[in-house]
């Protein structure tokens, strides 16, 4: 079982646990815009619908895409990212579902972000491409703890710091890896950034995410820091399809 804490809320997401028990794909969302679009025929609504359709077609071949539709106050900017191990078919399905779900959870909001296991979708009336998103972030962690947290935490940091260095140099800003723990046990890790960032900003985002693990996941058997620009994860079991 996983527990979660979000920034800046810092509370346990019991409702999330209940939802995950029913559908393990959805993770979390934020309705971060203070601006609304209200009329049913509002141009922003139409542009948002068109943008989400564009992303569902543009993203699956490479796992990442962005776009903007409209002018002035009705302009919508958005991006979508799929996990580096996710197939094109699953990527498209995830983005389509995420687009529908976020409009239901954030009705009439001009800015929102939603995460699933396989993808992330974000849109806003403000152009955010190329900027590290430090506001929309949450943690997930395994409720079970390891026997030797001090030693384990050092190994988690070593693995994810190494993957951070590999991901920012990769063309897809994505890296996975393993660390042998002995006794036939392995620590599995992942690091990934959205590809609108520069390589150095990707590294910066991942390093901050790794540094945030002790505050959420101290000695836990698994954990994630999931943000609008990057995410890191570690587990004591394989969790990507190419392992």
TrEMBL record:
One Pfam match: Stress-antifung
GO cellular component: extracellular region
Coiled-coil positions: none
Subcellular location: Secreted
Domain Gnk2-homologous span(s) in chain numbering: 25-128, 134-239
InterPro entries: CRR_secretory_protein, GNK2, GNK2_sf
Keywords linked to the UniProt accession: Repeat, Secreted, Signal
Leader peptide range in chain numbering: 1-23
Domain of life: Eukaryota
Gene3D superfamilies: Gnk2 domain, C-X8-C-X2-C motif (3.30.430.20)
Family: Belongs to the cysteine-rich repeat secretory protein family.
Classification via PANTHER family: CYSTEINE-RICH REPEAT SECRETORY PROTEIN 38, CYSTEINE-RICH REPEAT SECRETORY PROTEIN 38-RELATED
Name this protein carries in UniProt: Gnk2-homologous domain-containing protein
Organism in which the protein naturally occurs: Populus deltoides
Top-level taxonomy: Eukaryota, Viridiplantae, Streptophyta, Embryophyta, Tracheophyta
